[in-house]
From TrEMBL:
It comes from the Bacteria. This is Putative transcriptional regulator, CopG family. Residues 3-42 form the Ribbon-helix-helix protein CopG domain. InterPro entries: Arc_rbn_hlx_hlx, CopG, Ribbon_hlx_hlx.
Length: 99
C-alpha cells in the first residue's frame, strides 16, 4: 500500500478526527473510504457525460435514430416493452430519451 502525506486545515482535521472516532475507525481508513467514494462518483459522472454525448450524437443522425427505433420495436415485440421508450424522437430530437 502506498503512503501519502496531505495537509488539512485545522477545522477539517478536527471534523475528520471526530468522524473517525464516531465510526470507530482510524482516520486513514475514513480518508481511504472518502477518496474511493469520490473517485467512483467522478468516474460515474464522466461516464454519464460520455453516454449523454454519444446519445446526443446518435439522436442527430437520422440513420442511427432509425436503427434505434427498429431495435426498440424488436424488443417491444419480444415482450420487453418496459425496457424501451416506445415514443419516437423524430418529432423532437432534443427530447430526453431516458425515463
Amino acid at each position: 500500500m502506498t503512503s501519502l502525506s496531505i495537509r488539512l486545515p485545522d477545522e477539517l482535521e478536527s471534523r475528520l478526527s471526530l468522524e473517525a472516532r464516531r465510526e470507530g475507525k482510524p482516520r486513514s481508513e475514513v480518508i481511504r473510504e472518502a477518496i474511493a467514494e469520490y473517485v467512483v462518483r467522478k468516474e460515474r459522472e464522466r461516464f454519464m457525460l460520455e453516454v449523454a454525448a454519444a446519445a446526443s450524437a446518435l439522436a442527430r443522425d437520422k440513420a442511427a435514430r432509425s436503427e434505434g427505433h427498429e431495435i426498440a420495436e424488436d424488443l417491444a415485440d419480444e415482450g420487453l416493452y418496459d425496457l424501451v421508450v416506445a415514443e419516437r424522437l423524430e418529432d423532437d430530437p432534443g427530447r430526453k430519451w431516458w425515463k
